[in-house]
UniProtKB/TrEMBL annotation:
Name this polypeptide is given: Membrane protein
Domain of life of the native organism: Bacteria
Domain spans labelled Oxidoreductase molybdopterin-binding: 287-422
Taxonomic source organism: Streptomyces minutiscleroticus
CDD domains: SO_family_Moco
Database matches in InterPro entries: OxRdtase_Mopterin-bd_dom, OxRdtase_Mopterin-bd_sf
Residue ranges crossing the lipid bilayer per the database entry: 20-42, 62-79, 85-105, 126-145, 157-175, 224-242
Keywords, in A-Z order: Membrane, Transmembrane, Transmembrane helix
Pfam families, per database record: Oxidored_molyb
């Protein structure tokens, strides 16, 4: 008995499947995926991982880190923009990715599995493309939500996964782009967008096996399929973009739980990790709290009242997080980092600084900041926000605020600043 290929029988009978629809969806991803990759690399560079081991969550990256550069403080909204685009576009592309996978699912079950060396390479690129795409989108989506539950650390998994996925994309584009461009020319997009379901016809048979040999009657037009994908992306935009855009749209950010304001008042703006989650309490930040400033062989210890008596400065800066959410510009008040450096003898050029929190454990309880970040006059050890003392969740009694730095680099509950050092092993 003759066995029909998957495209001819069974569940693979949709008359919408074919090279044209697959190629249209692929072209959307071909535009979107490079945007995600570039903004993702920028996000990684913003952590200044080559500055200090404490900042580096992928210490074995090797050649993959050659592109890294010193992250700037100007413009102050750059990280907010690039990471907002990264997360929002990533979520918006989910319907396109799923539709693309649906359109090519017959190829995953095509027989025989390997027909030639070229076919084997195409199958391998397809496997890495599908697996890498699902992995990257899944880990990214989980990181945006309240709890990251994927086994392993998000940073190295997402970073290395992105490079594998990009390699698969480049290989697939090299193998399939000419055929995709030819397929797109077989049907007129404007005509298909005007074609109703009753006049929808299967594409001509193709050698790749996407077009079913025995197509079922259409229950949806290609216009409807593309419209459904577009509507899904638009809906995801509406429930995601508000976390970065802010204003009234913030209330619609249902897929960004970290990005919603926890309350009202000067401290009523989003927070990633609460004091309770970080295991920080009044015993760590109360009357006995002291700030230790070190550098040049000198040590200065300051109470909160002594910090308040130092020259105070203000900066209007947002907080932007890797999850894609950000606040509007908040008005922070406190002591400039470069003035604290001067207390221990760094009067001319501001040096790098190693910042430590009272937080007992967890990622980014300590970070290293570059000299350009310390020297920026807007970089503060903030004591107040919006005219009020910091709340405990926002870092009371003192937190770092640096222009254009990821939220986790703006360390909360600061207990020690070591100028001229970028690692705990170098502290004196």
């Amino acid at each position: 008995m003759r066995v029909l290929p998957p495209s001819s029988a069974g569940p693979w009978r949709s008359p919408l499947r074919g090279p044209w629809l697959t190629s249209v969806l692929g072209m959307v991803l071909l535009v979107g995926i490079p945007v995600l990759f570039v903004t993702g690399l920028l996000s990684y560079a913003a952590y200044n991982p080559d500055l200090s081991p404490v900042n580096d969550k992928t210490p074995d990256k090797g050649l993959l880190g050659l592109y890294l550069f010193s992250w700037p403080t100007h413009p102050y909204w750059l990280y907010r923009l690039t990471q907002g685009i990264h997360v929002t576009f990533g979520i918006m592309l989910v319907p396109v990715l799923l539709a693309k996978l649906w359109s090519v699912v017959p190829k995953l079950f095509a027989l025989p599995p390997l027909r030639s060396v070229g076919h084997a390479l195409e199958r391998l690129s397809l496997l890495l493309l599908v697996g890498g795409g699902l992995f990257e989108f899944t880990t990214g989506l989980l990181n945006v939500q309240l709890d990251y539950v994927f086994p392993g650390s998000f940073y190295p998994l997402h970073f290395y996964g992105a490079w594998v996925f990009l390699g698969a994309v480049l290989a697939h584009v090299a193998l399939r782009l000419p055929a995709a461009l030819r397929a797109i020319r077989t049907l007129d997009l404007r005509a298909e967008l005007r074609t109703p379901t009753v006049r929808t016809r299967p594409e001509p048979a193709d050698a790749g096996g996407l077009v079913p040999g025995r197509p079922a009657e259409p229950t949806m037009s290609r216009r409807g399929a593309l419209g459904m994908v577009g509507l899904g992306s638009a809906a995801l935009f509406l429930v995601t973009a508000g976390q970065s855009v802010g204003g009234p749209l913030r209330r619609t950010a249902l897929l960004a739980p970290h990005g919603r304001a926890p309350g009202s008042g000067p401290n009523g703006f989003p927070v990633n990790k609460t004091a309770a989650a970080a295991r920080v309490g009044l015993r760590d930040t109360g009357a006995g709290w002291r700030l230790t400033v070190r550098g040049n062989g000198h040590t200065v210890r300051l109470t909160l009242d002594e910090l308040r008596r130092l020259p105070q400065h203000g900066s209007s800066l947002p907080i932007a997080c890797v999850e894609g959410w950000s606040t509007g510009d908040q008005y922070w008040e406190g002591v400039r980092l470069r003035d604290l450096a001067a207390l221990v003898g760094h009067h001319a050029d501001a040096p790098d600084v190693f910042v430590e929190s009272v937080q007992p454990a967890g990622s980014f309880r300590a970070v290293a900041l570059r000299a350009n970040q310390v020297g920026d006059p807007r970089s503060l050890l903030a004591l107040r926000v919006g005219g009020a003392d910091l709340s405990l969740d926002h870092g009371r009694p003192a937190r770092v605020i640096v222009p254009n730095a990821p939220g986790v680099m703006n360390t909360k509950w600061v207990r020690r600043l070591t100028f001229g050092s970028t690692d705990v092993g170098e502290r004196t």
